[in-house]
Amino acid sequence: MAMTGTAQPERVVKGEPIRVEVEDNAQILLDFGHSTFAVVSTGFTMQKYRSPALELYGSKGTIQMLGDDWVPEGYEIWLNEVGAWQYFYETDPHWMWTDGLRHLVECIQQNALPVLTAEHSYHTLEIMLAAQASGREGQAREIKSRFTLPDLAGGREDPEAAHRIHDPRRL
Question: Which DSSP state fits 160?
Answer without folding.
Answer: G
